[in-house]
Design a protein that fits this description.
The chain is mainly beta and about 250 residues long. It has a single domain, classed as monomeric porin ompg (Porin), CATH 2.40.160.40. The chain contains 3 helices and 13 strands. Strand 1 and strand 2 form a beta hairpin. It is globular, with a radius of gyration of 18 Å. The relative contact order is 0.18.
Length: about 250
């Protein structure tokens, strides 16, 4: 089995597993599932890619990627979220601020949809250096998520808009999946383990698997969630390159 076939098998397996879990789950478990809008850490995203779900009103998610890239978010409404952050070490990551709004369009026990964006502004070496706002870049996206507490799949697309008031350019296909393999999300102090997957794929059919794939796990204990994942880059001719440094994310909600 060559590299392209291994990547295809991996993506299909991780995407299909939550579908099987939803079909084979007991009626009792389905009846007691938490609704998608409940304050479950990580329910509003996979690793980076957002899901179609939002957190409930007055929820504050706080976290950090790779320890040195913290952010804080807030949900003023059940269907509206916003997050902002900046790296702590500009000499290592460059100094930029980002703003990430998200609006839910559809909320249900199985189907959820949302749109949002990412506005990234380079402010130079200082935290408030006052960079040129015309240098800001923006990305718009939309996703649909199907599934319940046992697992789910996400499909969507993103495009770089350019300046905050630019026009869409090339499209990037967003895919995500997760599967709960231990524990239950309900209860006073849940202890849950999930497999997570997400992919950033080219929009051209002949390059269907080319792009970045992220595979990992999420551990949740009460309001705290920790994800550890490995990036896998699939090249145009089927070659696979695995990142040497794992991706780490930790968050808490209240």
């Amino acid at each position: 089995m060559n590299g392209a076939h291994r990547a295809a098998a991996l993506a299909v397996l991780l995407t299909a597993a939550p579908l099987a879990a939803q079909q084979t789950g007991s009626l009792t478990d389905a009846a007691h599932e938490q609704p998608p809008a409940s304050a479950v850490p990580g329910s509003h995203r996979h690793f980076f890619i957002p899901t179609g779900r939002t957190l409930p009103a007055d929820t504050w998610p706080v976290g950090a990627y790779q320890i040195a890239a913290p952010y804080i978010g807030y949900a003023p409404h059940d269907g509206v979220m916003v997050a902002a952050g900046t790296p702590l070490l500009p000499e290592a990551f460059a100094r930029f601020w980002y703003l990430a709004p998200k609006v839910g369009l559809l909320t249900g026990p199985r189907w959820n949809a949302a749109i949002g964006g990412l506005i990234l502004a380079d402010l130079g070496s200082g935290p408030f250096a006052g960079g040129d706002p015309l240098e800001a870049r923006s990305v718009g996206w939309g996703v649909v998520t199907w599934g319940g507490s046992a697992g789910g799949v996400t499909l969507g697309a993103a495009t770089e808009v350019g300046t905050p008031f630019g026009v869409p350019g090339d499209w990037l296909i967003l895919t995500g999946a997760e599967l709960r393999v231990r524990g239950k999300d309900r209860g006073a102090d849940p202890d849950v383990l999930r497999l997570i997957y997400e992919g950033y794929l080219a929009s051209r059919p002949e390059r269907a698997l080319e792009g970045l794939h992220v595979v990992g796990v999420r551990w949740r204990a009460g309001p705290v969630a920790v994800e550890v994942a490995m990036p896998i880059n699939v090249e145009r001719h089927g070659g696979i390159e695995t990142g040497g440094v794992p991706l780490i994310h930790a968050s808490v909600i209240w």
